[in-house]
Amino acid sequence: MSLSDQDRSTTGAPGVICVGESMALVSPSDGQGLEHAAACTISFGGAESTVALYLAEMGHRAGWVSQVGDDPFGRRLLSTLNRHGVDTSHVRVIEEAPTGVYFKDPQPGATKVHYYRSGSAASKMSMAILEDLPLAEARLIHVSGITAALSESCCGLLTDIFARARRDGTMVSFDVNYRSGLWSVEQAAGVLADFARQADVVLVGRDEAEILWGTSSAESIAAFIDSGGTVVVKDDDVGATEIASGTTTFVPAETVDVVEPVGAGDAFAAGYLSALLRSDDPHTRLQHGHRLAARALGSYDDFVPETGR
Questions:
Q1: Which one from 175, 200, 266, 301 is the annotated catalytic residue?
Q2: Helix, strand or coil, per DSSP, at residue 144
Q3: Which of 168, 200, 252, 269 is deepest in the core (most CB within 10 A)?
Q4: φ and ψ at 102, to 5 degrees?
Q5: Mean pLDDT, consecutive 10-residue segments, the chain of 309 residues?
Q6: Quick check: helix, strand or coil at residue 225?
Q7: Which residues are CB-contacts of 288 (< 8 A; sequence separation ≥ 6)?
Q8: Contact (Cβ atoms closer than 8 angstroms) between residue 263 and residue 303
Q9: Cα 210 versus chain centre, distance
Q10: How far apart are CA 284 and CA 53, in angstroms?
Q11: What is the pTM of this model?
Q12: How far is Cα 212 from Cα 190, in angstroms, rounded to an integer?
C-alpha cells in the first residue's frame, strides 16, 4: 500500500492535518542584510505549513488548516500550497485581517527575523475553524506552540484540538517551538508543558527546553514531560534522541555546510513524522528527520523541494 493510500480516509479527507499560521516571507535575494539589499524575493513560511509541504512531497495526503487575509499574500500562499499538493480546502479567507508578513535579515554568523504578524488573520483563529474539519478521520494532527502564543483564542483552539483528538483516538504531534519574540518564558513555560503532556509525540529542542523548564538533557526533558508518549529531543548539530516506552535511541546529526538554520526544525519534524506514519523503527525515524533537516540547512528557504521536483 502506498503512503498516499495509507493516509487517505474513505472520504478523501487529509490523513495528516497541520494547523497553524503561515506568513508571507520577504528575503534579500543576494543574501545581504535588509539594510543594504537591492532586491528581495517573496515566498512563504510557517512551521505547520512547512511540515505539510514536506509530507505532501513524500506522498502523504497532507492538509493545512488556518486563516489568511483576503489579500494578494493570502491568495499566493494558497496557490503555492495547492501547487505542491497540500489540501487547503479548510482554510478560511477573511476580510477583517491581513495575512502576516515576516522578513529575514541575514547577518554575519546568524539571520535575524522580523515579524509583522500582530492582528493577522491567523491570530484570530478560534475553535470555530474546526467546524466541519474531519479530525476524527485523520491519522495524525500536527500543531506547535507558536499557535498558542498568537492569541487567547488560538490557545483555546489548541486546547480544543487536544480534547477532540483524545475523544476520537487521533494521534497528535506537538512541536514546542518556543518563540521568545511572541511571549516570555514566564508566560510560555506552563502552557507549553501542559500541551506537551497531552501529546502522543513531542518534538523539542534541547536548548529551548532548558530555557523553558531548566532541563539539560534528553532524559531530563522526557522525565519532566512524563506523558507516557514519545519525546524527541533535537540537539542542533549534535543529533536527536527519541525516548519512548523506556527505550532511548540516539542518532547523530549529518555533517552539512549550513547556509541558514531557520526551517530545519520543521523539516526534521516532517521527516520524522513521515517515517513514523510508515511504522519505521526509531533509528530510521530520526535518520529520516536528519536527512530532511540537512536539505533545509543548505538553503535560505524554509521549504526546499527535492531536486528535480
A1: 266
A2: strand
A3: 269
A4: -140, 160
A5: 40 85 91 91 93 96 97 96 96 97 86 90 96 92 97 97 96 96 96 98 97 97 95 95 96 81 86 97 97 82 69
A6: helix
A7: 271, 272, 274, 275, 280
A8: yes
A9: 20
A10: 21
A11: 0.91
A12: 9
For the domain spanning 3-297, the CATH number is: 3.40.1190.20
Q: And the C-alpha cell for 297?
A: 540547512
The ranges assigned to domains in the chain are 3-297
User: In the prediction, which pLDDT does 308 show?
Assistant: 44
Instruction: Render pLDDT for 226-257 as a digit per residue (tens, 0 to 9).
Output: 989 999 999 988 999 999 998 999 999 888 87
As a whole number of angstroms, the distance between CA 77 and CA 161 comes to: 24
| Residue length of the chain | 309
Cell 543574501 maps to which residue? 31
C-alpha 163/C-alpha 167 separation (Å) is 6
List, in sequence order, the alpha helices (H) in 18-172: 47-57, 72-83, 145-150, 152-168
Model confidence pLDDT, tens digit, residues 148-167: 999 999 999 999 999 999 99
| Nearest partner of 124 among 160, 97, 148, 159, judged by Cα | 97
Known catalytic membership, residue 266: yes
Each residue's pLDDT tens digit, 116-137? 999 999 999 999 999 889 999 9
> What is the spatial distance between Cα 273 and Cα 289, in angstroms, rounded to a whole number?
8
